[in-house]
């Protein structure tokens, strides 16, 4: 048995709003959910909203975060709250939160992974999008649970303000935290990952980098390279960088599948030391390209991700779609962002419940054999169904 549903509200965040949302979701599910997801705008009243939701659901088994745009079965919404839930007798869920992410992201990943009662079959994580290092989080999880566990989710947002993001776990609100929900049981998972950006120009080698900061490309200050490419638009850095992310090749685990460009969006520039900080790590020695995309190619990526996820789940009926897409895509797509969600629904199924958000970084494996990565400017899908 598997039932899923999503609820959306534009009402002012309050305890009564939360209670109505929780009651409405429970009515749709005909039972208190075994697990719930809350994604909402970073607005006042969130603590009361969450309390009310838990009261309405009769459960605090909830996970989620603040966003830069909310996704539900009803499509894209801004300055809203979306709530999703699952009732099933085939999957057991565990929800864990780890605080003080900024003191060590890899250590937080290890602590989260070690806190589960047994090894999950699938894991979703929601991290602080400003204080955490997504790549290090994934390394920490892999240290404990290995590289074969599929990990998906997103880095929390705050509507592009880049001031503070919040995470939700077990009815509590956290900041500077890593929250995770483990799936144990008998189910099928299909994932899809695609960006729509393509490499341009000659590849350049990262000759000096540390973590998320790139200092030199081909021995030249990284900011000089970007400024020469952007010309008169260089003064708009780092904002304009979302249109031209840096990409580098990650070899596929499948010989029949093409290599994947993992993208990195610019977050800040240091004009004195001529360096660029990106939203994810770029390894020293990597060959990188500037990339570009347009609205048609970015929207086509949603088609590709939906097809990948649907194909990966095989003949199993999809029961729920989790969509974690980058806020940079929303910026570039503008008024056409809603089309991205519509294409997913067309590709996977219009009647399949969907929930997710626009992120500050996306977690998802690439290829049929799980290989987890932090992505930027990418749409990622996880589609669940019951094993026959």
Written account of the structure:
The protein is an alpha+beta fold. It has helices spanning 15-29, 46-57, 105-114, 134-145, 222-230, 295-313, 327-333, 337-348; strands at 2-9, 35-40, 62-66, 70-72, 75-77, 81-88, 91-98, 122-127, 151-155, 166-169, 172-175, 178-185, 187-194, 198-210, 213-217, 220-221, 246-250, 260-264, 266-270, 275-278, 287-292, 320-326, 354-359, 362-365, 372-375, 379-386. It is built from 8 helices and 26 strands.
Task: Give a quick rundown of the structure.
By secondary structure, the protein is α+β, with helices and mostly antiparallel strands. It has helices at about 15-30, 45-55, 105-115, 135-145, 220-230, 295-315, 325-335, 335-350; strands at about 1-10, 35-40, 60-65, 70, 75, 80-90, 90-100, 120-125, 150-155, 165-170, 170-175, 180-185, 185-195, 200-210, 215, 220, 245-250, 260-265, 265-270, 275-280, 285-290, 320-325, 355-360, 360-365, 370-375, 380-385.
């Amino acid at each position: 048995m598997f039932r899923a549903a999503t609820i959306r509200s534009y009402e002012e965040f309050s305890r009564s709003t939360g209670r109505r949302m929780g009651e409405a979701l429970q009515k749709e599910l005909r039972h208190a959910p075994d697990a719930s997801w809350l994604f909402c705008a970073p607005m006042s009243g969130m603590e009361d909203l969450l309390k009310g939701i838990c009261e309405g659901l009769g459960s605090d088994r909830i996970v989620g975060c603040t966003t830069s745009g909310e996704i539900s079965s009803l499509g894209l919404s801004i300055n809203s709250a979306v709530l999703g839930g699952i009732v099933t007798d085939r999957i057991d869920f565990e929800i864990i939160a780890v605080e003080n992410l900024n003191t060590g992201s890899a250590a937080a990943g290890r602590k989260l992974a070690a806190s589960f009662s047994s090894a999950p079959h699938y894991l979703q994580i929601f991290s602080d999008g400003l204080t955490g290092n997504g790549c290090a989080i994934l390394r920490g999880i892999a240290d404990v649970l290995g590289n074969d566990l599929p990990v998906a989710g997103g880095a929390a947002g705050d509507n592009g303000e880049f001031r503070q993001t919040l995470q939700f776990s077990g009815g509590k609100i956290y900041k500077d935290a890593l929250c995770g929900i483990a799936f144990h049981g008998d189910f099928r998972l299909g994932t899809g990952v695609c960006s729509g950006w393509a490499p341009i120009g000659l590849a350049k080698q990262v000759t000096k980098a540390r973590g998320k900061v790139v200092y030199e490309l081909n021995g030249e200050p990284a900011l000089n390279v970007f400024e020469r490419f952007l010309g008169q638009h260089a003064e708009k850095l780092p904002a304009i960088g979302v249109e031209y992310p840096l990409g580098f090749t990650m070899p596929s685990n499948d010989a029949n599948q093409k290599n994947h460009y993992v993208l990195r969006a610019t977050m800040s520039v240091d004009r004195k030391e001529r360096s660029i900080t990106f939203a994810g790590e770029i390894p020293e020695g990597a060959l990188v390209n500037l990339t570009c995309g347009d609205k048609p190619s970015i929207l086509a990526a949603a088609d590709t991700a939906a097809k990948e996820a649907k194909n990966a789940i095989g003949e199993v009926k999809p029961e729920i779609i989790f969509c974690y897409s980058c806020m940079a895509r929303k910026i570039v797509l503008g008024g056409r962002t809603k089309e991205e969600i519509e294409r997913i629904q067309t590709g996977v199924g219009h009647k399949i419940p969907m929930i997710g958000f626009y992120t500050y970084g996306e977690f998802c494996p690439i290829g049929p054999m799980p290989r987890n990565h932090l992505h930027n400017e990418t749409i990622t899908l996880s589609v669940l169904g019951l094993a026959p």
